[in-house]
Amino acid sequence: MIKKLNTEEIENINASIEELKDNEYYKYYFCDDEIINFPEEAYLIDDIYYIDFTKYDNFMCVGVINLSNKVISTSYFDLIHLLKNRLKHYKKLYLWCYLDNSMSIRFHNLLIKKLNAKQVINDNVSIIELGGLEWKF
Predict the structure, then answer these.
(1) In the chain, how long is the greatest CA-to-CA distance?
(2) ∠ Cα 83 48 127 (to 5°)
(3) How many CB atoms lie within 10 A of CB 59?
């Protein structure tokens, strides 16, 4: 189930995400020099996956984090549906992850295969772009 979050819910989840920074499971989800902008919109899928859409330097970036260490395979279908839906609005979306984060790299590979995402690898980071002129719904 996909739930669009209001400002208060986003603030509450962001506060709980801050507490995850010291957890070994989440070591690849954060970077030391990260600039924090408040998302334009955010969603919760199955009360496990938090997805936000945040603009950085005129690029709409998507953040995805599993809040519970659980994996629900059907959540990926909802996430793909959400990304396709938001692409209609934003036209281009960007996601990044560290190459050492094997779970996120598998997700990037899925997006490359299923949604024809473009990938750039720079240093130890994978960046993918969804959308663009070739995007077809």
Answers:
(1) 40
(2) 40
(3) 13
For the sheet containing 92-98, what is the strand order?
A: 2-4, 41-45, 49-56, 59-66, 92-98, 125-131, 118-122
Question: 7-65: per-residue pLDDT in tens?
Answer: 999 999 988 888 877 777 676 666 666 667 789 999 999 999 999 999 998 999 999 98
Cα dihedral 9, 11, 17, 22, rounded to 10, equals -150
* Pairing state between β 118-122 and 125-131: antiparallel
Are 28 and 100 spatial neighbours (Cβ–Cβ below 8 Å)?
A: yes
Helix (H) or strand (E) holding 63: strand 59-66
DSSP 3-state of 104: helix
Cβ–Cβ < 8 Å for 80, 95: no
Query: Residue 18, Cα to own-chain centre: how many angstroms?
Result: 16
Match 């719904």 to its residue by tokens: 137
CA angle 54, 105, 20 (to 5 degrees): 55
Whole-number average pLDDT of the chain: 86
Entry pTM = 0.86
